[in-house]
Design brief:
With 302 residues, the protein is of the alpha+beta class. It has helices at 16-25, 27-47, 69-73, 76-82, 92-99, 102-112, 115-118, 141-152, 173-212, 216-238, 261-299; strands spanning 52-60, 123-124, 129-130, 153-157, 164-170, 244-248. It has two domains: 16-48 and 261-299, no CATH class; 52-248, Bacterial polysaccharide co-polymerase-like (2-Layer Sandwich), CATH 3.30.1890.
């Protein structure tokens, strides 16, 4: 009989033999659970919406920064900064940030009227209006950008070779390829328009300073910078692939990207097998602990 104050008996851990015995005893439970998971995965794999992946491979067109411009300007460099004159041409980071920006995606969603497609369950196609009359339950552009970023659009950067891949996943392969190419064209147009506006401003400013400069060396420095800005202006006017050079346009994929049926079924089968096995072992451990506790309680004197 157990005396008061004695320590509880610590249960010995299960050995591999114990686990094998437990699994064999519950083999039918494990088999049924595995079959159920496999059947559910098969049903999902053949009924889930099919998604297709299209991508565009890009190379950022990062021109070399203008070397020695600020030193050539001398005292004019401070005035240029105050005037908002941007003399550098390092646009890779800006191009990638613009490509990922809410402004670009929001404008694209609005121009292409994609909200009814992105939120098809909330859209009445026949009446061509949202199902709910409550404005708070009707998705807007902000919701569209969030959904687009989470499920449709992504940007992959390869730090080793500097290439950028724009990826679009959608339920129709042709649409996915079309959107991917359009997004790249859109970011090129935006960056090109910005460069044109900046270069035109810089050229106007430098021309004004050139007419007011009285020192010959200052005129020569401003003239060299003006020549560089005119080259940038000409490049921005003629180069449609201003921010990104397209190395490989998106093509409509032949095969779906998701669901990967074999992978889904295999993963579900393994999950069902190991999940049921773990449950069987855990149940046996809990049963053993309860029996040990009951034995200890019966040994305690009343």
């Amino acid at each position: 009989m157990r005396q008061p104050g004695t320590q509880l008996v610590v249960q010995q851990p299960l050995t591999m033999v114990d686990v094998a015995v437990i699994v064999w005893a519950d083999r039918w439970l494990i088999v049924i659970a595995t079959l159920v998971c496999t059947l559910g995965a098969v049903i999902y794999a053949f009924t889930a919406p099919q998604w297709y992946r299209a991508d565009v491979v890009l190379k950022p067109t990062d021109a070399k920064q203008t070397q020695g411009i600020l030193s050539q300007l001398g005292s004019l460099s401070g005035l240029a900064s105050l005037a908002g004159l941007n003399l550098n041409d390092n646009r890779t980071s800006e191009s990638i940030a613009t490509l990922k920006s809410r402004e670009l995606l929001g404008g694209f969603i609005q121009d292409q009227n994609l909200l009814p497609l992105l939120f098809a369950r909330k859209w009445d196609a026949q009446a061509k209006r949202w199902i709910s009359d409550d404005p708070d339950k009707q998705p807007d552009v902000r919701d569209g950008v969030t959904y687009f970023n989470d499920h449709v659009f992504s940007v992959e950067e390869d730090k080793k070779n500097g290439l950028v891949t724009v990826v679009v996943e959608w339920r129709d392969g042709k649409t996915a390829a079309l959107w991917a190419n359009m997004l790249v064209d859109r970011v090129n147009d935006i960056m090109r328009s910005r460069a044109l506006a900046q270069s035109e401003y810089n050229v106007g400013y430098l021309k004004q300073e050139l007419t007011q400069a009285s020192v010959v060396t200052m005129q020569q420095s401003i003239g060299r910078v003006l020549e560089s800005e005119l080259q940038k202006l000409l490049l921005a006017k003629e180069d449609k692939e201003y921010a990104f050079k397209i190395l490989d346009h998106a093509q409509p994929p032949r095969r779906r990207y998701w669901p990967k049926r074999a992978l889904v079924v295999a993963a579900a089968s393994v999950l069902g097998l190991f999940g049921a096995g773990f449950f069987a072992v855990y149940r046996q451990i809990m049963r053993r602990d309860r029996m040990a506790l009951l034995r200890l309680q019966t040994d305690v004197p009343g």
